[in-house]
């Protein structure tokens, strides 16, 4: 029941937005629907963590602890982002950037995007999971092109083509998986259901599953933004409207990595070797390194943080590649804290760009003087994302590094180097933007009221996780990893 | 529905023939230079796909494949080509496809891809229990050939046809490896492809409006960091 409700709520939201999205007050309705979805996601998580996994919709829907955690993150960040976009869109409207029809398109697509991600998370059928992930791409492509500027149309096209190709390869992986599983499960509906597959994973044909996993990691990895398949990501993040950058970075990348991890559990059961872990380690490490080097010369604030997303997704992938109870725990914690912090940073960046009239770093100056609150938030965001204590990313990065010491010591020097570069680059840039400079001050437009609630909520949560790390949360994560079977790595 | 027909000695040959024709059509897409012929070849690929699904359905007596065949016909022979031709007319696209890599080199590369695909698919084919298991290599080869077409062409519409060609190849692989995916998944995939085609259509107008051309090289000059 609850599983059906959680998919129906954003669907209803999308329909309502499609009908009345151009009216006044529709954006408030959007917030209402998003918070309703968040409420349902909390309810689902409560059910899952008290009574165990939930199945519904003729076995097509399923949620265990692992997916429940991502459902809550998706619902939560989706809700706070809708709150942020309320203010963001009001300011855009005041600048005369958008009409009523555009608003309707935006709101309806926003709900469809949330719907698609939730469908990925609660789907038991790996075929439907593919369909939903592709649906999420289709919804966001139009959102990236939403401003209709040449650069954003180009970015959206690149996003569409690259992710389209990637996702097609993942479909081939799905076909191979079905091919292997229908031998034991028989043809028909059940052979792609994760719950059934998990039961027979040791009997699946290893050669086919190995090949399938390679197709999956290349296909879904394109959406995670793993190097060398990351080309679409910085463009799409930089050229789309900022609330969309926040949900792309904070949610969609997570959801794609979630899909890979589901398949990894099955592949590990069948393969009995290190193939999946090694692939994740390799892709993860290369992503971390290349992303941090690419940040060096970035002059665009949104692009800078987009590369930082690639770096952090790489770190999480690396952590799951390390495996074992601690590695997987660190990966999950890293994904959670990255979602919270990065989406909050994009909220701040959105307002920075709006008040400065440009997203080029050299043109953003004197933030500290013009908008002190924004400068403070940006600095705190920088501290949090580069993994300084006491924020949550410090905890997860510490865990990842200490696991790597015993499991992959060769990876320590490059990792440390990458983290150091990121730290140096981000702080240099943030300092340039916030401090007073001799550069001619831009004609400061009267500052509109900005919204900070979502930002402080996210930073606050990241701080609580990093400082106290509540025992109950640790237990939840542990249950989650146990329920999917990611704790026993090689 | 119908009981399995007695296997005709030529039936298996027919399936093999249709498979090789599909591979040929994937190569043809790489070689062709005119936009309208590309859409025609895409429609032809749809016909081949329908016939091959039909042949496998009759040979294996899997009745649900008959529905897939009808569906494929309606979707890939009628609906999608109609949309594409309409786009060609409305956008007044004519003339030649501009290629990044010249045709002979693409063809040589294509041959290498075909050999690679058959080597990769060999061990998998041996595990399959379908009547047309030898054709899994054809599916993989067509998939990678369409992929090659997508990356070696410049025009937006050519890339879309490459994308749809990839989807055809995937469908073909699914039919030959496992008699098709579960119905609900197949419908979902078709739905995505349909929505995707509409999104592509919307895009064409946006690209045209913004760049006054559908050639992606105009997009390349748009400065992004």
Description:
The complex is a heterodimer of chains A (490) and B (225). Chain A is mostly helical. Chain A folds into three domains: 1-124; 159-273, no CATH class; 288-490, no CATH class. Chain A contains 19 helices and two strands. In chain A, strands 1-2 form a two-stranded antiparallel ribbon. The longest helix of chain A has 36 residues, at 150-185. The radius of gyration of chain A is 21 Å and the shape is globular. The longest helix of chain B has 29 residues, at 63-91. Chain B is globular. The termini of chain B are far apart. The mean pLDDT of chain B is 80. The interface between A and B is large, with 51 and 46 residues.
Feature tags:
heterodimer; A: 490 residues; mainly alpha; 3 domains; two-stranded antiparallel ribbon; 19 helices; 2 strands; 77% helix; B: 225 residues; 78% helix
Would you summarize the structure shown here?
The complex is a heterodimer of chains A (490) and B (225). By secondary structure, chain A is mainly alpha-helical. Chain A is built from 19 helices and 2 strands.
């Amino acid at each position: 029941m609850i599983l059906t409700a959680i998919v129906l709520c954003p669907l209803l939201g999308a329909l309502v937005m499609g009908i009345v999205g151009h009216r006044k007050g529709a954006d408030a309705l959007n917030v209402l629907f998003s918070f309703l979805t968040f409420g349902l996601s909390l309810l689902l998580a409560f059910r899952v963590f008290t009574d165990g996994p939930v199945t519904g919709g003729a076995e097509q829907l399923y949620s265990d602890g692992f997916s429940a955690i991502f459902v809550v993150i998706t619902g939560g960040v989706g809700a706070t982002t809708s709150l942020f976009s309320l203010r963001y869109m009001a300011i855009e409207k005041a600048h005369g950037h958008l009409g009523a029809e555009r608003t309707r398109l935006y709101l309806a697509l926003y709900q469809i995007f949330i719907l698609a991600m939730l469908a990925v998370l609660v789907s038991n059928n790996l075929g439907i999971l593919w369909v939903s992930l592709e649906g999420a791409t289709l919804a966001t492509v139009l959102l990236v092109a939403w401003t209709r500027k040449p650069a954003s149309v180009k970015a959206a096209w690149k996003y569409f083509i690259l992710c389209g190709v990637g996702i097609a390869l993942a479909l081939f992986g799905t076909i191979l998986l079905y091919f292997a599983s229908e031998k034991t499960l028989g043809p028909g509906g059940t052979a792609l259901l994760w719950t059934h597959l998990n039961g027979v994973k040791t009997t699946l044909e290893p050669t086919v599953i190995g090949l399938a996993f390679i197709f999956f990691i290349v296909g879904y990895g394109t959406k995670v933004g793993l190097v060398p398949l990351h080309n679409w990501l910085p463009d799409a993040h930089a050229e789309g409207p900022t609330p969309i950058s926040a949900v792309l970075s904070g949610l969609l990348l997570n959801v794609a990595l979630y899909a890979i991890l589901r398949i990894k559990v099955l592949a590990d059961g069948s393969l009995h070797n290190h193939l999946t872990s090694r692939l994740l380690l390799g892709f993860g490490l290369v992503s971390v390194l290349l992303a941090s080097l690419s940040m060096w010369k970035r002059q665009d604030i949104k692009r800078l943080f987009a590369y930082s997303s690639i770096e952090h997704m790489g770190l999480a992938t690396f952590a799951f590649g390390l495996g074992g109870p601690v590695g997987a725990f660190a990966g999950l914690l890293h994904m959670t804290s990255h979602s919270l912090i990065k989406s909050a940073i994009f909220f701040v960046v959105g307002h920075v760009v709006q008040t400065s009239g440009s997203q080029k770093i050299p043109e953003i100056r004197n933030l500290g003087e013009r908008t002190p609150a924004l400068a403070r938030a940006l600095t705190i965001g920088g501290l949090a994302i580069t993994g300084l204590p006491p924020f949550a990313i410090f905890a997860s990065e510490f865990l990842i590094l200490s696991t790597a010491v015993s499991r992959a010591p060769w990876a320590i020097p490059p990792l440390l180097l990458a983290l150091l570069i990121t730290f140096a680059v981000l702080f240099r840039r943030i300092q340039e933007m916030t401090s007073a400079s001799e550069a001619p001050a831009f004609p400061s437009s009267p500052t509109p009221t900005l919204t900070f609630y979502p930002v402080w909520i996210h930073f606050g949560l990241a701080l609580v996780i990093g400082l106290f790390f509540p025992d109950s949360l640790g237990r939840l994560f542990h249950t989650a990893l146990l329920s999917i079977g990611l704790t026993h790595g090689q | 529905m119908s009981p399995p027909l007695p296997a005709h000695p030529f039936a298996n040959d027919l399936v093999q023939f249709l498979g090789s024709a599909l591979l040929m059509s994937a190569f043809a897409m790489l070689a062709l230079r005119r936009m309208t012929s590309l859409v025609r070849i895409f429609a032809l690929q749809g016909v081949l796909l329908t016939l091959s699904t039909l042949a496998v359905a009759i040979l294996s007596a899997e009745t649900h494949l008959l529905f897939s065949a009808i569906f494929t016909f309606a979707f890939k022979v009628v609906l999608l080509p109609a949309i594409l031709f309409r786009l060609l007319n409305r956008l007044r696209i004519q003339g030649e496809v501009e290629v990044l890599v010249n045709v002979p080199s693409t063809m040589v590369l294509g041959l290498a891809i075909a050999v690679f695909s058959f080597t990769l698919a060999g061990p998998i084919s041996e595990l399959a229990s379908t009547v047309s298991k030898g054709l899994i290599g054809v599916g993989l080869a067509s998939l990678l050939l369409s992929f090659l077409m997508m990356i070696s062409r410049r025009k937006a519409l050519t890339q879309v046809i490459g994308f749809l060609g990839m989807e055809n190849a995937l469908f073909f692989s699914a039919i030959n490896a496992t008699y098709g995916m579960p119905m609900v998944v197949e419908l979902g995939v078709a739905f995505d492809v349909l929505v995707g085609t509409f999104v592509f259509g919307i895009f064409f107008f946006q690209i045209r409006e913004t760049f006054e051309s559908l050639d992606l090289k105009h997009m390349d000059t748009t400065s992004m960091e």
